[in-house]
């Protein structure tokens, strides 16, 4: 009954849906949904970036010039929530939507309507979250980690913050389910798991992380909600609870979360470097195992965010050792990227430049991570700008740079036009320089003793803060170039992109036209191992 | 001699004595590195930090060096032809093992230092530290095995800094200083006073939300959590004035609850404490006697 | 992988956006209600709930319709199965957060407050005189003196009910596979009844707790964990029961055949999951 065969690939029998609403709002097309995710992500990057500009402007010099301290805390909190849940995660999901079906020879995602729902929840979730700025009492201001009891002192924003996080969680869980089902169930015959591009591998593993931890975050914020509104005592010692309990639950989510934001980036970089080195990725299997290993370890290191809460020494030591271990599989990945470049035949188009910057700058961020894993040393780094520097190196020059690299890499494939190399390079070089002016001095500030999440500081911290702010403004302004490049490429560029945009590119996506047909593969493609990046490589 | 006069003199002397130590311990413009601090624990942390830093620099030089060489030697424009190999088990084994060994090298001293920091036995003094929005309370619990009678006070941002930090105050943050140190936002009305050369144990907690007790030159840091008590110890041998801040986001004035510790030579501390106890007793007597004006206790200012 | 040589893509649908709007309304309303805008909040929340219900009827309706027309091939079936499986996994993790909270408070926070282990100072300085024990509503005795639900009454009965409902649904499944329509309907119907009875008893238990035991959501950490765990579980049983009713109706209409009854299986999985959660609850909340 179910197999009454040879159905047309689309119930409606016409491939191109008509009308704006039908195409975008009711979409079941992975490319359109991917595009919406990416546009949403970029929008959120600018909103979150705008908040960051507010932070940097207030910190430009000592003394309070622009805002009340409470508003500063709102900016910090919303900056992080918007960047993490609005910019980085949807950015990766957008790329997954666009590329995974094309890379494994599928027509679309496994569950296309749910895919649409995953996306459409997000704009509503962020309307809910951002609207708190206009409530009496303002937006959430207890940091993105939302620690009680402080967060419970909030006003009307608390309920909306919690619900918007529930919505984001629902969206992420459905997205993850979709990606798992797509990868495990929709691969074209002959596309073995160990022939898949590394981007698919990284997302497969990330999806499991999402499934495991987003519900835990939902649980954590639900407990916040009931503590505030329903009289429970989860985080109140007087009632037998413990504020530290929240931190355990939150970081059980929070640490895997940071790998959710970096594993797909690893996948992207593993696509781009081989293409421009014209040499297959070094140690394909080791790359897969390394990701799996990092994902596993990410579940047993959460307390490294809590070294100062007064854990027993046994826990401190366990979490220190486990955290340090993550450097090993991550090192494998870094070494493999470098070795992929070794004896290659490299060219330096814009995507490659971003990828190289990623490898160097992410590694710097990883180094400060390992330093913080050393418990006694972390007593000095904890909650200072040293950490702010650490996580912006892994998040901005890590996750965000990887997304930008991927956009340059696949934009010609998506749009059918070439972007401007010149402006791409302008964007790159300005970003690469200013981002370091922005974040490197924050290491010094942290070491000198400047705590994070403060709107004003001692005059000894003035100089580097000013340097950092200048870097921040220029880095932010540079991102306007990015928007220009994208708009030009999509709407104005006259240079048509060939199917195989990059000389050294391998993989199924390059066998499709640029732009690809509405449904990527109407029938399963016959896999020719030689077009795959890893198909004919026997390890 | 009145208590406050005595205090003004002694603390003045102590500051002069320790000016050099504090100069090393407080942040300076363009400071690049961690403070070495003034306790043996902070020295050990500093050494660990430097070891980790150099390890990272070393690995960085190798990795980035290899990348840069690759980028120059193996570019297409120089006619490089790509090799076809794509794995090498021996090499991969080596660079899995190497980091493990390096990390063991770092974890070993870290473990030892941590064990020491966690050992609060043998402390000769206990002070209860309580964080409030947005001030600290210090209660002296016991000293040299004897309970301390009723000595405790609040400590909050000094008035001068507080005026300057108001939005658009137009006042210059560089204009306040204390013995040559520009102490904007790092000064309080009443510092915590502890004796030099004594192992002091702090029991740290909070009254409303989570705060954090941190004095960088001591190398100690502990969360102050409502309903929970953590402990931490320090032994400072050099008298002086040391500054830190609340480091856990605790609401709108989180940035404005500094910690200032005045470490007095032991003898001076003893008389300071005695004076405080006497004063506390006097205050109590005055209160019970329903005296008209409340006793003005403005000690510990310098 | 594709079995018929083509892929199946559903056409566009308005239900996802309706679902998103429904969720949004529901949460805006709930938030307003919590913040004290009662009537506005309740209205918007109700609107959201109606939208969500309408969406579910519409969405599932169209999927059922497509399934009946035979649009779905084996590959789609596998995708659905994976979707359900991993959805249940995420639910397990959601309960994990609350079980984690329960274990943490019982093994760490109560002993700490009571001065055991690392808690000596905490007890000495802040909660002097508080002795660790479970059940507990903490050193401040939040909510006042209370008693707990004895496990060997209603909870045991409820355990037996859910366990037998797992048996009946399995029998129903076998009947479906063997083509015994009558037996299928009877045993599936029995499952629904058992689920409903469970809920009935749980309501009774809650009333009992609030009126006689002074055990409420406000009863310190014991009340918090007790009601949050059993409450979320009860919500899942409610959902499961509704799903069972829908499936029963679909069986009556003959929607399923021996080989093709994914919806039935999905609900059965869900029911087993609810059952397993209950066993953990019974053990850790009531018995131990
Ligand atoms: C994408 C995000 C991301 C990533 C990938 C990482 C990666 C790592 N992080 Fe980071 N981290 C964050 C995001 C991230 N982090 C955020 C957001 C916070 C702050 C949260 C908050 O409080 O708001 C944080 C905070 C944070 C802390 C808490 C500090 C504190 O609060 O006191 C710690 C402590 O251990 C830590 C450690 C690490 C480690 C060891 C890694 C490792 O995975 C890094 C591994 C990589 C390398 C080491 C480089 C490459 C390796 C080699 C070249 C091999 C050889 C190297 C050696 C032998 C050293 N991180
Ligand atoms: C996920 C990613 C992410 C990203 C991409 C960023 C990007 C940036 N972040 Fe942020 N950040 C976090 C995650 C991220 N951050 C987190 C998790 C925290 C911790 C929060 C907490 O403590 O709770 C944090 C905290 C944080 C702080 C510390 C605040 C505090 O402790 O009080 C600072 C301070 O400098 C900062 C700065 C910046 C800057 C300048 C950028 C820049 O890279 C942004 C660049 C982008 C733009 C600027 C937007 C584009 C351009 C325009 C809008 C045009 C107009 C602008 C001009 C013309 C100048 N971030
Ligand atoms: Cu007190 Cu921050
Ligand atoms: Cu972490």
Could you write a compact summary of the structure shown?
The complex is a heterotrimer of chains A (539), B (302) and C (288). By secondary structure, chain A is mainly alpha-helical. Chain A contains 16 helices and no strands.
Task: Give the SSE order of chain C as H and E letters.
Answer: HHHHHHHH
Name the poorly predicted regions of chain A: 1-15
List all distinct small molecules, including ions and cofactors, that are bound in this structure.
heme-A, dinuclear copper ion, copper (II) ion
- The CATH C-level name of the largest domain in chain C is Mainly Alpha
Helix content of chain C: over 70%
Largest sheet: number of strands, sense, barrel closure of chain A: none
How many helices of chain C does DSSP assign? 8
- The secondary-structure class of chain C comes to mainly alpha
Structural class of chain A: mainly alpha
Descriptive terms for the model:
heterotrimer; B: 302 residues; Helix Hairpins; Immunoglobulin-like; 5 helices; C: 288 residues; Four Helix Bundle (Hemerythrin (Met), subunit A); globular; binds heme-A; binds dinuclear copper ion; binds copper (II) ion
Question: Explain this structure to me?
Answer:
The complex is a heterotrimer of chains A (539), B (302) and C (288). Chain A has 539 residues and is mainly α. Chain A is 65% helix and 0% strand. Chain A has helices at residues 20-25, 30-58, 69-104, 112-131, 157-185, 198-229, 243-260, 263-277, 284-297, 313-325, 327-341, 350-373, 375-381, 385-415, 421-448, 462-492. In chain B, strand 2 (135-143) and strand 3 form a beta hairpin. Chain B is elongated. Chain B is α+β, with helices and mostly antiparallel strands and 302 residues long. The longest helix of chain B has 34 residues, at 40-73. With 288 residues, chain C is mainly α. Chain C folds into two domains: 11-66, Helix Hairpins (Orthogonal Bundle), CATH 1.10.287; 74-107 and 134-287, Up-down Bundle (Four Helix Bundle (Hemerythrin (Met), subunit A)). Chain C contains eight helices and no strands. Residues 1-5 of chain C have low confidence and may be disordered. The chains are: A mainly alpha (539), B alpha+beta (302), C mainly alpha (288). Chains in contact: A-B, A-C, B-C. Chains A and B meet through helix 3, helix 9, helix 10, helix 11 and helix 12 of A and helix 2, helix 3 and strand 7 of B. One heme-A (HEA) sits between chains A (145, 258, 261-262, 304-305, 307, 323, 326-327, 330-331, 334, 363, 366-367, 369-370, 372-373, 378, 381-382, 387, 390-391, 394-395, 398-399) and B (56, 59, 63, 99, 102-103).
